[in-house]
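User: Here's a chain of 221 residues. Predict its fold as C-alpha cells.
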Amino acid sequence: MQIISVLAQKGGAGKTTLTLHWAVEVQAQTGKAVAVIDTDPQRTAVKWYQRRAQETPEVLQSEPEQLPKALEFCRNKGVDYVFVDTMPRVERWPSVEAARVADLVVIPCGPTVPDIESVADSVEIVKRTKTKAVMVLNNGVPGSGHNQKVIGVLEREFDLPVCPVVVIRRTALFHAFNDGRAIGELAPSSKGAQEIRKSWRWIAAQLAAEAEPKARRKRVG
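Assistant: Prediction complete.
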C-alpha cells in the first residue's frame, strides 16, 4: 500500500480539491483500490463523498490521532493507494504524523507571496521526518508567465522537486464538486482534467522512484 499525504499549512492552497481529483484519477488510470482518509475537522472530503453517486474511491473520516488505525483498516481491506487529507493549519503533531507515515508528501502552493511564505512550515516538517516530498503549484494564473517564475522561486527557496505541470484555477474544478464528481468525470477532455492527469503522472513517477530503493533494500535484506 502506498501512502500519499497532502500537506498545506495555509487554507486555500487547494489541498482537499487536489486530493480528491487525484484520487479519482488514480483509480481511473490504474483500476486499483484507492481510499482517502479525511483528518481535516472541516470534513470537506467526507461531505464530497456523501454527495457522490459512486462508492469509490472511498473516503474515510478519521481524527488525526486515529490515523494509524485508519491506515491499518485500509491495509486490511487491500487498498493500494491511500491519500491522507490533512488539516490546513500548523498543528505540529498531526502534520508530523501524516508526514511520518507517508511514502510521499505532496505540498500544494498557490501563486502569491503569502502562499509561498506559508510553505516553509510544511517543508520544515518533511525535513524533520525525512520523508520524500514534492511541490505542486495550484491555482495558477491563466496564460501568465508568473507561474513559471513562482516555480523557480519554490525550487530555489525550498530545494524540493516542483511539478512542471501547473494546475490552473478553473471553474470546472469546483463545479465538479457540486455533486461529488471529479473534473475527469465531469469534463474529461478539458484543460483542467488534463492538468490533473499530467500532474498525477508526474507525482506517480516520483512515488515510483522512491519505492524502488525501498524494494531493493528489502530484496537485499
